């Protein structure tokens, strides 16, 4: 990974998060800070201030209803319901009366009156004991900002409200913000924060939006409307480039798209080595909407469906029926190919404001994933029922995330058994033999993989988390991104040991962390015996190409050699050279 270097005052280097080239105008995201001054209003102008307030409320309401309508059309009605809470704030008579009284009594401008009352409300809500009410703070803040914007006559566009194509530049983007981006409007993004395996970066790859993250100090130097080039292949940003630079990048963009197109020719071919060793190259998804991309890139099933995205950007929980519909859809689309449904991995950098998840000092090591599910079996069971009911429509498998010991696995299985029992009683059909596997992404699980392997049908190595926990490097912190190294010999030892232990126990071992999407590691992983690669859909053709270019024996020799190196630098240099000699230079 590169640290930021300034070759030229307009060139910035960050972390290449999602491949491709984008050229466009900047929309600074969430950068507005309003200064509101207190003004005295003459008696005869007071009715005008009140009218301005009422008009701002009406305008805000119209905006929210329009966003709801768009979300409903583009993402489904349930996603739109998050804005019901915003509408309720707008109808709060107490808040409205208080603002009007303040204008009348103190003869002040509406902006000032509103901000004072809003602050009072935010203060009260932030001190509430009730978690649910405390969470409403975010809604009040959001609506409050909109009303102020409308009072001041300023425009702020939401990610779904954009009318023209833009490149988003932001200090940070949450996975929920990113999930709201529309590919037709947001053609690229750049953030100061973030690492390559942050969920925002992963999502950008799934959505095929070129992105660079970890730029550290870009936002303060950028204005709305600036022209910017995003080179998601190298992790470079060029601000207000010269015409000649734009022309060069337009050519670069065409070259990239042609290359992608060429790779798509491999789409229908199996992932088989020259000596007939078959592996599976599947895809990772966050939303069922990605299925068309999965099929277009020739993925052999899904090695990871990140179901937690179903819980984001809404104010209620997904119902059993929603779970069922989503899983049935993926099961049917992928036909006989395996679809690994990971039970929800909420927490870490994926927050759900309406769930009872208090802020934690260290959320990546907090009550996330299976820990949350075991604490809230009611929520967990709803999802399991949805998966089981959908299991008769295809080849579904269940996978638990963040398992750190046998106790958690057994507890999760007990809950699963209870759900199965309930379905049997109601005579609701499901696949009695559905495979249950686990992610190996916590070092403790890797170390006791032999015990775990006896009780599961498969392992899937979650390198995104495994690397962060094994190397003690926060995966979303750009300041230490240079230490986040999949090629660290310790990481490779862990991977080798997980695969060996899995095979000794007779189960298959896959990998759904981002390392499985990186061509540089494909030969090594193949040689170590990995059975399944689950990559972002866009990376599937290239991983297939690497696998199809060598024999298993060659890959094993490469893996043996790699395991002898003591540094990531040696490993990277050697793996890159092998990739170049055996794959890239191969006559097609
Ligand atoms: C992983 O940790 O490698 C993984 C695939 O899960 P996530 O990225 O969703 O944490
Ligand atoms: Mg993980």
Provide a descriptive summary of the structure in words.
The strands form 2 sheets. The protein has an 8-stranded mixed β-sheet. Mean pLDDT is 89; it is low at 1-7. It contains 22 helices and 16 strands. The two termini are 30 Å apart. The chain has helices spanning 46-75, 77-80, 84-90, 93-106, 110-126, 131-152, 175-179, 199-206, 243-263, 291-296, 320-334, 369-375, 377-390, 406-425, 443-447, 449-453, 463-471, 489-504, 519-528, 540-548, 552-562, 568-584, and strands at residues 11-13, 15-18, 21-28, 166-170, 186-191, 211-213, 227-231, 236-239, 280-285, 302-306, 338-342, 395-400, 435-440, 458-461, 508-511, 532-536. It has 588 residues and is of the alpha/beta class. Bound molecules: phosphoenolpyruvate (PEP) and magnesium ion (MG).
Please name the defining characteristics of this protein.
46% helix, eight-stranded parallel β-barrel, TIM Barrel, binds phosphoenolpyruvate, binds magnesium ion, 588 residues, Enzyme I, Chain A, domain 2, 3 domains, 16 strands, Glucose Oxidase, domain 1, disordered N terminus, 22 helices, alpha/beta, eight-stranded mixed beta sheet, globular
Strand order of the largest sheet: 1-8-7-3-4-5-6-2
Query: What is bound: which ligands?
Result: phosphoenolpyruvate, magnesium ion
SS-derived structural category? alpha/beta
Low-confidence stretches: 1-7
| Termini gap | 30 Å
| Form type | globular
The appropriate CATH architecture of the largest domain is: Alpha-Beta Barrel
**What is the H level of CATH, i.e. the homologous superfamily of the largest domain?**
Phosphoenolpyruvate-binding domains
Q: What is the third-level CATH name, the topology of the largest domain? A: TIM Barrel
Q: How many domains in all?
A: 3
What is the CATH class of the largest domain? Alpha Beta
Give the radius of gyration. Answer: 26 Å
